[in-house]
Design goal:
This protein is of the alpha/beta class. 39% of the residues lie in helices and 16% in strands. The protein contains 11 helices and 13 strands. Helix 3 (96-117) runs parallel beside helix 4. Residues 342-348 have low confidence and may be disordered. Bound molecules: nicotinamide-adenine-dinucleotide. The site of nicotinamide-adenine-dinucleotide has 28 residues, from helix 1, helix 3 and strand 5.
């Protein structure tokens, strides 16, 4: 591996997918630390609005580009974070071939960019690589239980292939790579229409609609607040010694979907009827990260309990709905139109 430049103070950091939910929170955090940030995003599921606060900041620039296309960036780069990929089932299933190519060709393009710039690389992988897990909680050495031909495969298998590329580049000494396996994350800047469990339940409650729950609602998830996650990503990127494998980042508190729904209802002080629908194909029944490695190698642990993180998240959705989410409604993005079609087919 080429010698990495030692930099002190402000770094030059590229964030692919920086206009999205987690990416925009990461850009904000990195800018607050005094770094220079270049965000690359094709605005498939991200929004310029998420980056509005940085317009005019000389340490920030935005490049509207698809990572599936070769990318050339002028000037030095110290770190590359790859968060570019639609992350909710309706959005990644809207154009599954593009999702797969984003994970494979897009990740390769960014790895090669990192290699040329002798930059450190962090891949945003996912708990979805464990599929519908047969081991609980999920440790990093669990190899997963994924259906490679199902409707979720473009994302699950795409992310698995991206991890393969990362570790081949690391093993051959070409790029210093770190891989974060991110579990369900929530917080401000999630899209109201992205079809994830937290956004669905909050938006339905705020709109006075019946709550949609797939299956019995006794399936479990672990929810990590976005500021905890962003801190974990930065710790993983900056830890001196390259970990010898992926690191789970998530909150190990495990909640049923029914419990999440009742927490949201009680925070808003309302009740709503519930409509149950069949579980989506390949939907995981249990999900909880084992974060021993993150605690040991990064001294990282999430500190925001679900009850506390829900408050600013509900506030964010309240403001976004009050503002009318006007732009999307006037001209819904391509993935929203396709997602409506998929939902009508019962495939989400
Ligand atoms: N949010 C979660 O709970 C979660 C869990 C596990 C993993 N992740 C991973 O974290 C990353 C960010 O997730 P998020 O929740 O912020 O999703 P998001 O959809 O809000 O953000 C993804 C961003 O990537 C951009 N993008 C998508 N395809 C692109 C392409 N080909 N070229 C350039 N930009 C592209 C989108 O426009 C968007 O801004 C994703 O890689 C996702 O797989 C998220």
């Amino acid at each position: 591996m080429q010698e990495r430049r030692l930099t002190t103070g402000a770094k030059r950091i590229l964030v692919a997918g920086g206009a999205g939910f987690i990416g925009s929170n990461l850009c904000e955090h990195l800018l607050a630390l005094g770094h220079n940030v270049t965000c690359v995003d094709n605005l498939l599921t991200g929004r310029r609005e998420n980056l509005r606060a940085h317009v005019g900041n000389s340490r920030f620039r935005f490049i509207d580009a698809d990572i599936c296309d070769p990318l050339n960036i002028e000037g030095p780069i110290d770190e590359v974070y790859n968060l570019a990929c639609a992350a909710s089932p309706p959005s990644y299933q809207a154009d599954p071939v593009h999702t797969m190519m984003t994970c494979v060709q897009g990740t390769l393009n960014l790895l090669q960019l990192a290699e040329r710039h002798v930059a450190r690389f962090l891949q945003a992988s996912t708990s979805e690589i464990y599929g519908d897990p047969e081991e609980h909680p999920q440790r990093e050495d669990y190899v997963g239980h994924v259906n490679c031909t199902g409707p979720r495969a473009c994302y699950d298998e795409g992310k698995r292939a991206a991890e393969t590329l990362c570790y081949d580049m690391l093993r051959s000494g070409r790029v210093d790579v770190r891989v974060a396996r991110i579990f369900n994350t929530y917080g401000p800047r999630m899209r109201p229409d992205d079809g994830r469990i937290v956004s669905n339940l909050i938006v339905q409650t705020l709109k006075g609609e019946a709550l949609t729950i797939y299956g019995s609602g006794e399936q479990t998830r672990a929810f990590c607040y976005v500021t905890d996650l962003v801190r974990g990503l930065v710790e993983l990127m900056t830890v001196a010694e390259t970990p010898d494998g992926p690191i789970n980042l998530g909150n190990p508190g495990e909640f049923t979907v029914n419990r999440l729904a009742s927490l949201i209802l009680s925070q808003l002080g309302v009740s709503r009827p519930v409509r149950h629908f069949p579980l989506p194909v390949d939907d995981p029944r249990r999900r909880r990260p084992d974060i021993d490695r993150a605690q040991e190698l990064l001294a990282w642990t999430p500190v925001v309990p679900l009850e506390d993180g829900l408050k600013p998240t509900i506030q964010w959705f309240r403001q976004t709905l009050a503002a009318g989410a006007s732009l999307e409604r006037a001209s819904p993005p391509q993935f929203v139109v396709a997602a409506a079609r998929i939902a009508a087919q019962g495939a989400t």
